[in-house]
Every structure is written in structure tokens, then in C-alpha cells.
Amino acid sequence: MKYLKTLYVQVLIGIISGILVGWLLPSFAPTAKIISEMFINLIKMVIAPVIFFSIVLGISSAGNLKKLGRIGGKGLLYFEIVTTAAIIIGLITANVIKPGSGVSTQQIETNSKNPVPEVSAGVDWGQFISHLVPSNIVDSFARGDIIQILFFGILFSIALNKMGANGQSVISFFDKINKVLFNVLHIVIRVSPLGAFGGMAYTIGKFGFASLALLGNLLLTFYITGFLFIFVVLNLITYYYGFSLWKLLGYIKAELLIVFGSSSSETVLPNIMEKLERAGCDKSVVGLIIPAGYSFNLDGTSIYLSMSVIFLAQVYSIPLSLVQQLSIIAILLISSKGAAGVTGSGFLVLTSTLTALKIIPLEGLALLIGVDRFMSEGRAITNIIGNTVATVVIARSENAIDLKKYRMIVENKVHDK
Question: Range of 231's domain?
Fold first, then answer.
């Protein structure tokens, strides 16, 4: 019975219970949605301040701005390389497995009742650049805009750094506030099994298993691709940097289950930051890489985007040449960054890519709406694993990790008390 007191076991029970309730009592879906949304809102209410204080404390602990620039530069380079690999793997597996073959375009008309979000035909780069700078930081905090909070946090940290010893009192005060916020988070996370239950009950009750049968091949291909990316690409990266992917996944297993149940990687953002710091990663790396990764290192989303383009081309029986597929890679590499931090960015990037190619009808997006909820779990899990690995890799490359502490806590499974 002692296992029932463990968080990941409780979350697993919540997920299984949610699937059963959603299947047997689909009418419970609206109530389940309320439960899920309340849990996500509980987490979101602390995300913005946690990110801000973590950035400020992390950069302040870096000691000098040169180190900050080096960490940021390495992070952006790593993000670009790994997301490129994710896009390429998505294209390859979609071409090999061909999930769109045999799907009738009549099914698109059947699914047309699902509303496709209205998005622009392309990325407005002027708007994207201006979006980086908040016009009202209070509004940015209220909306939980990670990019704008990151930008303001970096500026605030630089200004605080220039104060030298006079800024220590502010840093000490912020550290105390951050500890209070994480205590709030510890209270909230205890109800995560209920949040996971609500998320799964809503998904199954609302969408059922019928849509799984309709596009089961696409879903299977997507999850196979995510599995290959995590256990081949990320596994090779972790092996090269001298740490175990399996042990790291074991360390964050509770968070992965919460993400799976809630279909949102945001629900564990503060938890992941705290766990990585506890495992010996430097505050300066965790405070910068995790928030930036949530905007620029969305590996699961990159796989989804590249695979969706090929899938829709197969549905419409449109052959894509090698040059056209290389164009898809180039477009996604640029547009995915341009849509970072924008609500509904997945469909924005997909729409802008299809518009740029000018060979695949945009109406096909309606077909993807029906199974998007089932794919969101895979996207979210891949995203959170990718950002966790990125943080440890950057910390390792910067010698900004206490390896002895990391080995003891992560690899010897000396986890939470």
C-alpha cells in the first residue's frame, strides 16, 4: 500500500480511471473538462512569477554577462540543430509509413464541422519581433507570455547585476519569494492525479475512440516517430554527454504522467526547473534554457508539423519532390521560430507552410482537428523530454552541473523525500 502514496502511481491511477469513465460515461466529459482546466489554471497561476524569479536568480548567480551570453548562444544553437533533426525524422517516417495513403478526401468533408482556427497565411516578422518586447509587463504576466517574461527578466537581471553588492538584498528577497511560490506549487501538485483524471475523461468522453479508428495510422506513425526521436536522437545525445536518458526519464516520471494526463507540458514547467536544480544543474542554466526551450525547442511540435504536411499531401495524392521536401524543412525551421509564443502556433505554422508550398489545399486541416487532442499528449511529452535533456546537455557543456550530486540523485534513484 505504500506505493499508493507515491505521486506517479496516483497519477497513473487517475489516468486509467479517466479513460474508463470517459469510455463508460461520455456524458461526464463537460464536468471532466472543468476539472482538467481548473488543475491547469492552478499551475498557470504560478508559472509566470516562477519563470521571472528563476531567470533573475539564475542570471544573478551566473556572476558575469559573458557567461550568460555563452549559455544563451549554446542553447539557441542546440535548439536549432535538434529541432532540424525532429523535422527531418518526421518527414522520413511519414514518407516510409505513408499514413495518408487510403484516407479519402470525403472524410475531410465529414470533419469539416470541426472549426479550423482562423490564422494568417504567413508569419508577420515585424509583428513577431515587436512581440518580443512587452508594452505592458503586467499584461505579459497576466497572459503568461513566456517570451516577453523572459525578455523582461533578462533586462531586469542585467540591471540588477550592475548594482553589485547593493543588489544582494533584492536577490535575497526574490529568493525567499521563489521558495514560497514553490511551496504553493508543492501543494497544487498533490491534486495532479485529479487533473490527469479530468483530462483523460474529457478526451475519451468528448472525442471517443471513433476518431482513433479513422486516423489510427497517422496517430501510430506520429507516436512511433516520437519514440524514435526520444530513444535514438536524444539517447545518442545523452550518451555523448555522459549521462543516461533512461535514468533521467525515471527521475521525471511523475511529471511525464502529469503531462500525458493533462495534454499540456506547461503543467510541469516549474516542477522540472526545481528538479533539475535539485539534481545539480546550475540556476543560471535552468533559469534560461527551460523558459527559452518552451518557445524555441518544441521537438514534438516540429515532428507533428513536418508529418502533417506529408500526411495531407498523401491524402490528396500529391507527390512531393526532394526539392519540395527540402523546402518544407527550410520553411518550418524559419516559421516555427516566428510563431513562438503565439496562441495556436501549431496551425499558424502549418497554414503558413502549406501557403508557401501552394500545392496542398488548406481544407485538409479540418481532417487533423478531430485527432489533434490525441496527438497533443505525444507532442507535450516529447517537448518536455527534449527541454529537460537540453538543459542537462548545456549544463554539462558549461561545467555548470554538480556531477556527483547528479549521479547520486538521478542515476542512483535517490529521489524526492
Answer: 14-411
Reported pTM: 0.82
Look up residue 281 and give its three cell numbers: 544543474
In sequence order, what DSSP letters do the residues of 242-285 get, joined into one string? Answer: T--HHHHHHHTHHHHHHHHHHT-GGGGHHHHHHHHHHTTB-HHH
User: Rounded distance, CA 233 to CA 226, Å?
Assistant: 10
Write down the residue that cell numbers 475519451 correspond to: 204
Cβ atoms of 58 and 283 closer than 8 Å? yes
Helix, strand, coil in percent for the chain, rounding step 5: 80, 0, 20
Contact 53, 174 (CB under 8 A): yes
**Residue 417 domain-assigned?**
no
Structure confidence by residue, pLDDT tens digits, 308-359: 889 888 888 888 888 888 878 877 776 665 444 444 456 666 776 777 667 7
CATH number of the CATH domain containing 191: 1.10.3860.10
Instruction: Tell me the average pLDDT across 123-144.
Output: 75
Nearest to 123 by CA among 341, 359, 379: 341
- Residue 97 included in any domain: yes
